[in-house]
Fold Amino acid transporter transmembrane domain-containing protein.
Amino acid sequence: MESGADARNDRRTAEEKAIDDWLPVTSSRNAKWWYSAFHNATAMVGAGVLSLPYALSQLGWYHFSFNPSLLWALESQY
């Protein structure tokens, strides 16, 4: 049973309490900084890989393969 002060301070609805009880987010998690770095990197790589089919569909085979080669050649000069 909740004490009187806790009951007054806790103004969440029954649905919000049920969701909070279901969520696995607790203070006992043991995440490290490299877990976050890995997940951020995979998210960025995933977005890049998913954008390739769209770029290919908009540019076509010739421009899709020619433009990166041209940019690489120009950048390698400096």
Summary: The CA atoms of residues 41 and 47 lie 10 Å apart. The chain is about 75% helix and 0% strand.
